[in-house]
DNA sequence: AAAAATGATTGCTG
DNA sequence: CAGCAATCATTTTT
């Protein structure tokens, strides 16, 4: 198949084979020249046909038997000797393409390039969730088809990579064979062979890079499709919202959990800290926007805390949910407690709970209980100014919610 | 199917 | 950089 290359250099088209030995007087073997060589070879291989094969075979044989052959060989050697120095100059060691490094790193991080089992970030997240406590059984399910898609990508990636690898090796062996064959006709130093191999490898690694690139893209798309929480958002579990609401309403006067508190809440709810932050952000603003709508909820949670406190039981895991009044804050809170009785209709609004709450409220007395007095609650610096600061002007009397049927708010709770 | 609820994002502010 | 406000994109409820 390759014999054609071995024939006597054709007047015009033989540049390729000559280039291989670096014997071209005018063209020292600089890198671009090398690339040209391989291109030519490829082209020539492509154009070989069966009939030219026979022809080449014959020519080769003729050449090998030619009486002048030894002479030709020695001449070539001589030429090569003279020009051999120039070939050495082309020695740059490929500065480890940073782009490729980046791609590699990413693929590795994404678990595409790594060990077969590694689930990458997904596995890490799942592990984290698992260790956090069994509060969120649903998020591993959420990742499962993400993971399967990722595995699919990884599979394709690996098989493609292998294909390329194989093709590269195959091609390299071909070229090596070819060079070996040629070495009978003309001098070929092992150095040159190496050079050819490295050139080939470079070519193929360029292709590989493309592969990696597109794999990266696919992963990114997948990621944004599945991991973008906004797309496939799931409501928090019932318990989670419960925990969060509990905290919110028991710190109603200052619903700004410190970093530590957020972390704890996050752990308890099986969500991330930033999710806790989001939740509180949303909650604050939505609460403020329409207090009436939340009144009921507020009461429920107030009762909850109150009851749990009254029973003396620490149903909460440990210290950090101190007894606190839902009504310790600004004026609206007072009215809130007044509204409590009106607002209880739907759920356990029987007199039983209300009386409990009332007694509790009385027992707590006015004012003196800041939130988080009891426990080791940390105040974040900005929390200090918040007490009067957040949702300042929201006096319920003015905010009679449009959706709220009963005239509700009479802030003269003194009855 | 429409409306409400809800978690996340974005731009802006201090 | 945390928080607010508006908004988006879903999910849940009606």
UniProtKB/TrEMBL annotation:
Residues 1-38, 312-332, 352-415 are annotated as: Disordered. Pfam families: Homeobox_KN, PBC. Residues 229-291 bind DNA. It is found in: Nucleus. This is Pre-B-cell leukemia transcription factor 2. SMART domains: HOX (SM00389). The keyword DNA-binding applies. Belongs to the TALE/PBX homeobox family. Residues 394-403 have a biased composition (Polar residues). Keywords: DNA-binding, Homeobox, Nucleus, Transcription, Transcription regulation. Residues 227-290 form the Homeobox domain. SUPFAM superfamilies: Homeodomain-like (SSF46689). One of its GO terms (cellular component) is nucleus. The lineage of its organism: Eukaryota, Metazoa, Chordata, Craniata, Vertebrata. Residues 33-228 form the PBC domain. Residues 13-27 have a biased composition (Gly residues). One of its GO terms (molecular function) is DNA binding.
